[in-house]
Amino acid sequence: MTEPAAPLTPFPLSALLDRIAREWSSRNRIFDMPTARFFDVSNGPDLSVDFMGRVAATPIGPAAGPHSQLAQNIVLSWLGGARIFELKTVQILDQLEIKRPCIDMETVGYNIEWSQELRIHESLDEYVKAWMIIEILRDWDELTPLIGADPGPHVFDISVGYDLAGVSDPGVAEFIDGLTDAAESIERLRPEIVEPFEGWRRHPFPTRIADTATLSTFHGCPPNEIEAITKHLMTRHHLDVVVKLNPTLLGFERVSQIVNDELGYDEVVLRPEDFDADLQMDRGLELIDELEKFAVDNGRRFGIKLTNTLVVQNHRTFLPDDPMYLSGPPLHVVSMTLLETLDAALPGRLAIDGQPGAIQVSFSAGINKENFAESAGLGLAPVTVCSDLLKPGGYGRIKPMLKALQMKLVDAGHPDLAALQAARSQQPDGAVATYVATLHDAEKNMAYTRHGTSKLPRQVDHVLEMWGCVACNLCVTVCPNDAFFKLPTVKDLQMEGRQQYFVLAELCNECGNCLTFCPEEGDPAFIKPRLFFDPDRFSSATGQAFLLTGDDGLGITAAAGFEAEVANLAASLSQSEGLPVRGVYQD
Ligand SMILES: Cc1cc2nc3c(=O)[nH]c(=O)nc-3n(C[C@H](O)[C@H](O)[C@H](O)COP(=O)(O)O)c2cc1C
Ligand code: SF4
Ligand code: SF4
After folding, report:
1. Closest CA to ligand 2's atom 8
2. Which residues form ligand 1's pocket by a CB distance below 6 Å?
3. What is the 469 CA–ligand 3 centroid distance (Å)?
4. Which of 42, 146, 302, 550 is deepest in the core (most CB within 10 A)?
5. How many angstroms is it from 522 CA to the middle of ligand 3?
C-alpha cells in the first residue's frame, strides 16, 4: 500500500537559498517580508534573556505551531527579531489526517491542528535547513545595514509529545539525536548551498542545534506519563526540559468563571470531562517538585510553560472537527491567572518577578503588541506567539512588539530588559499579581473580552477572480508558510488590478487562514493560480493548477481547462521575475 502524501512538500535548501537571492535582487524582500519588518537587535536597549542557561538576544519567538514547522517560517521569525524558537511539535504519529480548514482566526483563535504535518525525517531537515540559512544570513553583507553586524544568539527548542512510548520510539529518538548533533544532516545539505552563498559551503556550521526540549502535554498525553517522559528526555538525551502545561490545570470552575462570566464569551462551551482527563493541580504541584529535584540531581535544568490552547466544544461552523482549541486574548487572562496561582503555590520557586527560583517559566497565550512588553517585564522567557502572527501582518508583527518593549525601557530609563524586570518586581504586590489584577478589572480588560474581540475582518462586495482582486496583500502576510506571493500586473494582458497573487501549492496545507482574511468572496488558496513543482502532486491536483519544470528556463504545463491562462502566468514570471519561459504545455 502506498503511503498518503504529506500535506506539505518542503522546498529543498537550494531552492530556498535561490528564492532568497532572487527575491532580494528583484524585490528587496526575503520570503515576501519587506526590509522595514526586519529587526536590528543592536539598535536600542539590550533585550537579551537567559533561557535555561543559554542566552538569546530577544525574549520572543514563535510558539510551537504553524510558524515553526517549515524552514522559511523559522527564518521569517528570525528576520522579524525572534530569537527563541519553540519548534513545531514532533511525535511518532507522522501521518495524521487533519481535517481542513484547521485554523479559524476570525475573532479570537480556534484550531483543530496538532503536531507536525511532515514525516519525522522531514521535520528534522526543516529545522537543520532553517539553522543553516540563519547562520548564512546573519553574516550576509547585504543584510548588515538592516539587522546589524551582530544579530545576537538564538535558541532552537525541540518540542515533542505526546506519550512515553512515542517519545521513546527509535524514530523520535533519532530525530532528537539529529538535532543535538546535526553534523550528518549538515554535511548532506552542504552541497545544496548555491550562489550567491557558495562561500558558506565550507562554513563551520555549529552542529549542536538544540539541547532543550519542551514537552507538549496535550492531545491525550497521559498525566501519569509526564514525569517519566521528562526524565527520559533528561537522561537518555541529556536535554534541559520545559513541561508545557494546559489551561485546564486552573480547573473547570475558575476557567469557566473567567471565560464565560468575566470576559463574556457565553458561546464558549467548556466540558468538565476534558478538565477531568487532564493533569490536576495537586498532582501538577507534586510533579513540579519531583522534576525540579530530579533535574538538580542529574545536572539538568527544568522549567514550565504556560500554556497550550484550551479545549472547547466546537460551537462554530468553520472548523470541521470537535473539540476545537481556543487561543488568543481570552487564553491570555486564563494563563496569566494560572501563573499567579502557581506562583502563590510555589513561593519563590519560579524564576519570575525578581525571585531567586530555579524553575524557568516560559509563556504563550494571547501575546500581542499591547501586552508583550508587560509579559516580558515579568521575567518570562521566552514569550512566544502563535495566534497574533496569524493575523494580518503575520511575521511582520514581531518587530512592533520588540519596538514596544524597547520604548518601554527607554521611557523608564532602563538600560536593558533585566533592569525593567528588577524594577517591576519592586511593586508592593509583586509584578505578576499587579498585572493579573488589571486583567480581571472590568475597566481595564476590554481588549480581552468578547466585546473587545468581536470585530470581524473587512469584507468587500466582490467575487474573487483568478486574475485581479483588491490586492490587499493579506493572503501573503497571514499565510504562515509563505505559500502566497505577488507580482506586479503585466500591462496589456487579461489581468485586472495592480498585483497578481500566486500560490506555491506544495507549501499550502489548506489551513484556511487566507480564506478568513481575504476581503473578497471566495477562497484565495483555490481561486488564485496554484503553482506546482512536483509532477505527481500536479497530476492529482484539481482546478487551476500549473506545473513549473526546468532549470535553464521554465516549462509551464497547464491543467486541462486552464490553457488560456498560461499567457498571463508566463508573462508575469518572465517580466517580473526575469525567468525565461522555455515552453508551455497542456496536461
Ligand atoms: C494552529 C495552531 C497549531 C498549534 N500547534 C501546536 C503544536 O504543534 N504543539 C504545541 O505544543 N502547541 C501548539 N499550538 C499551541 C501554541 O503553541 C500556543 O501555546 C497557543 O496557541 C497559545 O498561544 P497564542 O494565544 O499566542 O496562540 C498550536 C496553536 C495553534 C493556533
Ligand atoms: S495559502 Fe492559505 S490555506 Fe494555504 S497554507 Fe497559506 S494561509 Fe493556509
Ligand atoms: S486574494 Fe484576497 S487577500 Fe489576497 S490580495 Fe487578493 S483580495 Fe487580498
Report:
1. 511
2. 63-66, 88-89, 103, 109, 111, 113-115, 159, 216, 244, 308-309, 327-328, 331, 364-367, 385-388
3. 6
4. 302
5. 10
Regarding pTM above 0.85, the answer is yes
Question: Looking at the structure, do residues 517 and 546 belong to the same domain, yes or no?
Answer: yes
Asked if the model's pLDDT at residue 397 lies above 90, the reply is yes
Q: Which DSSP category does 49 fall into?
A: E
Q: Domain count of the chain? A: 2
Q: Is residue 7 part of a domain?
A: no
Mutational pocket test of ligand 1: of 308, 333, 372, the residue with most ligand atoms within 8 Å of the beta carbon: 308
| β partners of residue 384 | 61
Which pLDDT belongs to residue 348? 95
- Could you say which ligand is closest to the alpha carbon of residue 372? 1
- Grid coordinates belonging to 428: 508592593
pLDDT, position 244? 98
**d(CA 146, ligand 2 centre) in Å:** 28
DSSP bridge partners of 521 = 463
Cα end-to-end distance, the chain, whole Å: 27
Domain range enclosing 34: 13-453
In a domain, 23, yes or no: yes
Q: Which atom of ligand 1 is nearest to the CA of 329?
A: 25
Q: Are residues 69 and 132 in the same domain?
A: yes
Structure confidence at residue 2 (pLDDT): 43
Cβ-Cβ contacts under 8 Å for 418 (sequence gap 6 or more): none
Is the pLDDT assigned to residue 112 strictly greater than 80? yes
The Cα 175–Cα 160 span in angstroms is 10
Ligand 2: distance of its center to the CA of 507 in Å? 8
Class of residue 50 by CB neighbours under 10 A (exposed 0-12, middle 13-18, buried 19+)? middle
Judged by its nearest atom, the ligand closest to the C-alpha of residue 117 is 1
Mean pLDDT of 399-420: 97
pLDDT tens digits, 473-532: 999 999 999 999 999 998 877 788 889 999 999 999 999 999 999 999 999 999 999 999
Enter the C-alpha cell of residue 364: 504563550
| Per-residue confidence (pLDDT) for residue 224, from 0 to 100 | 87
Position 1 in a domain: no
Give, using CA atoms, the residue closest to atom 5 of ligand 1. Answer: 65
